[in-house]
Amino acid sequence: MENGAAKPVIVAIDGPSGTGKSSTSKAVAAQLGLSYLDTGAQYRAITWWMVTSGIDIEDPTAIAAVAGKPEIISGTDPAGPTITVDGTDVSGPIRTQEVTSKVSAVSAVPEVRARITELQRSLATSAERGIVVEGRDIGTTVLPDADLKIFLTASPEARAARRSGELKGADVNATREALIKRDAADSSRKTSPLAKADDAVEVDTTELTLTQVIECVVTLVEEKRAAK
Ligand SMILES: Nc1ncnc2c1ncn2[C@@H]1O[C@H](COP(=O)(O)OP(=O)(O)O)[C@@H](O)[C@H]1O
Ligand SMILES: Nc1ccn([C@H]2C[C@H](O)[C@@H](COP(=O)(O)OP(=O)(O)O)O2)c(=O)n1
């Protein structure tokens, strides 16, 4: 690398629920001094707004009509990511079961995706040192020119065990079924479904510790940075 400021590096991390995207992305960004964006939190935030505003989630036309209304702001410091809707901190409310069960329907609406994608691109472009962006369609649609694309996978059993460990006392089988259902919805929607980009590096995390996954991704980012 030349002397002086390093060029910003853009990293896209995609994959289904519970594969380790958030934990890995946050740690990689913190270690490398990059910004961090949880795009799932943005889709959860707009879903939270639709629910609290009384919009019929079963009606894509009604969702599309108001998709531009809420102001969603993401703070991209990996040490303390934040998310607000019209100035209200929604980091807690966006993790409720109600929002989780409705987020796939809301995020399938093209007007919602167009709105959120615009926010994502703007944050990625303004990150001075670069950014790690995690989601479902980052490598394929949002940032197709990312310097590095990672696609994380893990068996449904491992993913359900991880998630039910987080939701204390949750039944592993019910969690597994809910995950599979949400992944199927996210993978089968028409507009930018959950998918691996052709040029993404696939990492199966089933048998890896979180530390191993983080090390693997940090190494890949450093290789890309050195080559820039
Ligand atoms: N490789 C791993 N091994 C064990 N647990 C993991 C691993 N990666 C992530 N986890 C744990 O699994 C849970 C879900 O991880 P998270 O990063 O939120 O996944 P995602 O963002 O893909 O839904 C978290 O509690 C996290 O600590
Ligand atoms: N880039 C993205 C990110 C998330 N989504 C949608 C689809 C996902 O089911 C929801 C929630 O994503 P989130 O990453 O918070 O989900 P989990 O942490 O895996 O439970 O948002 C999306 O459509 N596109």
TrEMBL record:
GO molecular function: kinase activity
Reaction(s) catalysed by this chain's protein: CMP + ATP = CDP + ADP; dCMP + ATP = dCDP + ADP
Enzyme Commission number(s) of this protein: 2.7.4.25
Highest taxon of source: Bacteria
Class of enzymatic activity (EC top level): transferase
Broad class of the protein's primary localization: cytoplasm
Sorted UniProt keywords: ATP-binding, Cytoplasm, Kinase, Nucleotide-binding, Transferase
CDD domains, per database record: CMPK
Family annotation (Pfam families): Cytidylate_kin (PF02224)
Domain Cytidylate kinase span(s) in chain numbering: 11-222
Chain sites annotated for binding ATP: G15, P16, S17, G18, T19, G20, K21, S22, S23
Cellular compartment(s): Cytoplasm
InterPro entries linked to this entry: Cytidylate_kin, Cytidylate_kinase_dom, P-loop_NTPase
Family: Belongs to the cytidylate kinase family. Type 1 subfamily.
Protein name: Cytidylate kinase
